[in-house]
Amino acid sequence: MPAGRGRSQVRCIDRRLSTPRCGQCREVGALPAAARRISAASRLRPFIDHRSSVILRSVELIVETTAAEPHPGFTGPTGDLLAFLTFGASERYGAMHPLSGVANLLRRRHGVNLLPIFHFGDAVPEDEEDERNLDALWQDAAPLAESCAAAIERLRAEPRLQQLSAGFPELIPRLDDLRRIAEWAAERGARVRITYRLEV
């Protein structure tokens, strides 16, 4: 595994669309990890209809591992999971969407750590800095599996979460697929990276 994989980076994962929001970031041209998540979500939002959450342009969700063999993969369409990544990751920044509400309740009321799920970015780098940021997206698999399992448990048990996520019937199945992939990787001592690719 190349040196540096999994280390935190301070630069925005998608510098093309992000704007520093604080004086310190403007001075050093850097953004904290939370800002990288909102930047990745901002990159996806224009391609998802806010009312219906239908993907308006083909977006490929990519999950990679460092294992030698291919992982189990997804068993169905990933649009609902992409919508959750997009609107859930931007929940802390005032996004108004049912899935933002899901993320808010999971995080604040039920104490679910969603950071491993929302640790994602653009799969297509444009320069060396983008390459470094892309490399920083590698994460340990076990915390991701635990995050998915905890989110699924609450989504299945809590009526308010069921109400908010009712329009996204594939969310739980795809989170379960992601959990299964992460567990598979953890069993092999492998790491995981979540990215997306927009079709030109």
What does this structure look like?
This protein is an alpha+beta fold. The protein has helices at residues 23-28, 33-44, 79-89, 98-109, 128-135, 141-157, 159-164, 171-187; strands spanning 59-65, 120-122, 139-140, 191-198. Strands 1, 2, 3 and 4 form a 4-stranded mixed β-sheet that branches. The chain starts with 22 loop residues before the first helix and ends with a strand.
Spell out the helices and strands N to C. HHEHHEHEHHHE
The rough form would be described as globular
What's the overall average pLDDT, rounded? Answer: 78
Total beta-strand segments:
4
Characteristics:
200 residues; alpha+beta; four-stranded mixed beta sheet; 10% strand; globular; disordered N terminus
Please render the helix and strand layout as text.
Elements: H1 23-28, H2 33-44, E1 59-65, H3 79-89, H4 98-109, E2 120-122, H5 128-135, E3 139-140, H6 141-157, H7 159-164, H8 171-187, E4 191-198
Parallel strand pairs: 2-4
Antiparallel strand pairs: 1-4, 3-4
Helix pairs in contact: 2-3, 3-4, 3-8, 6-8
Quick recap:
By secondary structure, the protein is of the alpha+beta class. It has helices at 23-28, 33-44, 79-89, 98-109, 128-135, 141-157, 159-164, 171-187, and strands at residues 59-65, 120-122, 139-140, 191-198.
